[in-house]
Amino acid sequence: MATFEKTVGILEFFRAQGAKNVQKGTWDKSGKPGAQGDNGLIIPISKDIEVLTADLKVSWFTPDDAPPFWLCHRPSSGFTTIGEALSI
Asked: Which phi-psi region, left, alpha or beta, contains residue 65 (left: φ > 0; alpha: ψ -120 to 50)?
């Protein structure tokens, strides 16, 4: 089963990598879309993202059939309860 881990906001991710700006670009060899920081780091983005926005997320994505990689994607719109509620 594919997994998303270590999820953070796109700005937080690139800031932690030393970038001050990020823009949508393409991979040199494949021409696929990516998010590129001004530090030279490029990560792939989900196919449905046309414009980079501050609400996007970056996760360590482990697909079923390939090595893991950082992936920029839309935030999850769902919530799944995986345990009992805690009283506060």
From this structure: alpha
